[in-house]
From TrEMBL:
Keyword Metal-binding: yes
Names of required cofactors: Zn(2+)
Organism field: Tropicimonas isoalkanivorans
Name this protein carries in UniProt: Adenosine deaminase
Taxonomic path: Bacteria, Pseudomonadati, Pseudomonadota, Alphaproteobacteria, Rhodobacterales
Domain Adenosine deaminase per the UniProt entry, residue ranges: 5-324
Protein family membership: Belongs to the metallo-dependent hydrolases superfamily. Adenosine and AMP deaminases family.
GO molecular function, one term: deaminase activity
Gene3D superfamilies: Metal-dependent hydrolases
Pfam families documented for this protein: A_deaminase (PF00962)
Keywords: Hydrolase, Metal-binding, Zinc
Amino acid sequence: MRDMPKVELHLHLEGAAPPAFVRGLAAEKKVDLSGIFDERGAYAYDGFVDFLRVYEAATSVIGSPEDYARLVRTVLEELDAQGVIYAETFVSPDFCGGGDLSAWRDYLAAMREAAEDVAAKGGPVLRGIVTPIRHFGPERAKAPALCAAETAGAWIVGLGLGGNEAVGEPKDYAWAFDCAREAGLRLTCHAGEWRGPDSVRGAVEDLGVERIGHGVRAIEDLALVDTLAERGIVLEVCPGSNIALGLYPNLRAHPIARLRDREVKVTVSTDDPPFFHTTMTQEYDRLADAFGWEAVDFAALNRVAAEAAFCDADTREKILKRLEAADV
Ligand SMILES: [Zn+2]
C-alpha cells in the first residue's frame, strides 16, 4: 500500500505538522508544550474540545514565513514517504499574516518556493487552497477570500471553508465564495462532518462548490446522496479523522463504502494526520481490512481524486500518467 501512488485532496498544512517538528520549533522559541504529548511523543488529547486545545497549542509555535517554508518541506517529506505524488493543502491568510495581503504574499512566496523546490527534485507536487475560518464569522472571511483572489494562479488553486461547522449557514459566506469564483478559483467547503445533510446541501446550492470536505453525513438523506452522485460532487473523505473525533465508532460503521456504492465520487485523505495518529498508507490498509477493497479499488479512488484536483490541465495529465504507470 505504501508504494501505491496516491493523491490527497484534504490536508490542513498546520494540522500535518509532525510532533518532532513542533517540538523543534517550541525548543527554538523556548515555548513549553510538554502538556500536549504522550510518553511516546505523539499528540495526546481526550475528546474533541481537548483536541482543539492541543491543536491550537501545537500550531501556535509556527509563526514566520520561514517557519511555514520549513513546515512545507517537512510535510512533503512525510507525504513522499506515504507514496503521495500530489496533494492539495489548506492554507490560511488568517494564520499567515493576519489577513493582510502584503504579509500573505510573503508567506505564500516562502511556502511556494519550498514546495516547488521539492517538486523539482522529484518529490510530491503541492497546491494550496485558501481557507477562511468559519467560526471567525462571515465578515472576517472576506479578507482571506480577497487574499486568495489576489494570489490566484498556478499555486493557489482554490478556496475552502474550514473551522467550526456549527457557526453560521453556508450562504452567509457567499461573498467570499463569489469573490474567489470570479478570480477563477475552484471551490470546496467543509460540511456534513459536525452537521447533517442540510449543511452539505447548503454548500452545494448556496456556495456552488464542486467538492465537499468530509460530506459523509450526506448519507443521512438518500435524496441528497442521489443529488451528489448525479452532479458529480466529490467528497474529500477522511475516515481516520472521523473515527478519531468520535463521529463513527469504527470503520465498519463509516459511510464511505455506502456512499461509493451509491455512485458518489469519494476520495480518501488524512485531514490532520499526526493528530489523528494516521497516514495515507494506514487509511488504505484499514479500508482494505474493513471493506475488502483491493488495489484496483484504490487505483480508481486515486483517479477520481486526480480528476477532481484543482490544478491546471498539464499537471493533472502528469498525475494521471503516473497513476496509470503504476496500474498493473
Ligand atoms: Zn478538514
